[in-house]
């Protein structure tokens, strides 16, 4: 079911590019991203908690075996890159992978299903003014908030591994190694600038990579919906939509994997001594 705006495909796409916002402390608050993020996180936690409670030491069920494969996969990725205590980082990597994967998978759900439900209960006029973006990872605020968490943890692990003085010394004494007091003073400024750029580039690239891929995929699905709205392009829309759905599934899994691997890699690098 499509909610076609009077302006055609252009206005239809613009309609679906708006977030359902509420004002909090004078700033727009993307309510739909929070709803989907919290809901999918709760589903993930409930699923794995139930699997853990029902786990047996004997022959595992298909559900238990599937969960064990995912857990071992995440733990293996951390073990290969992070050589410290994995008691926190392995569950953290698992949570990142599954949470991002769940939020990404919403992208393959037809975007007009929510609009159709709103039309059914609230009427067509209300549906035209209703905005809800179900793909939380297509919201730059969501992806940046997650990458900001990784950014904070890199400082935590860096200070934990090297101590406060050692971590601060590394920021002013690398990548250019001073050979004396004078050279240390001269090279301190460029070293601080380069390290600052490196630290800031990590959360920005991590968040924008995920946001860009999911936002682009969402736009393509909107274009496919536009093709399906006309009998002239309906056949092409079905073929292209199916092909893009298969390709998007690969992107969805790959982006969740990349976000997890890069997060672990940044934390592993933070505790390495230059």
Key features?
274 residues; mainly alpha; two-stranded antiparallel sheet; 9 helices; 3% strand; disordered N terminus
Brief write-up:
The protein has nine helices and two strands. It is an all-alpha fold and 274 residues long.
Please give the structural blueprint.
Blueprint: H1 9-16, E1 21-24, E2 27-30, H2 31-53, H3 62-81, H4 89-105, H5 112-122, H6 124-129, H7 140-173, H8 181-228, H9 234-270
Description of the structure:
This protein has about 270 residues and is mainly α. The chain has one domain. It is built from 9 helices and 2 strands, in the order αββαααααααα. A two-stranded antiparallel sheet has the order 1-2. A hairpin with a 2-residue loop joins strand 1 (about 20-25) and strand 2 (about 25-30). It is globular. It starts with 8 loop residues before the first helix and ends with a helix.
Question: Which oligomeric form is depicted?
Answer: single chain
| Share of helix, binned | over 70%
Mean pLDDT: 83
* Number of separate domains: 1
**Mind summarizing the main beta sheet?**
2 strands, antiparallel
Unreliable sequence segments: 1-6
Cross-sheet strand order for the largest sheet? 1-2
Q: What is the global morphology?
A: globular
Distance between the termini: 57 Å
| Computed CA radius of gyration, to the nearest angstrom | 23 Å
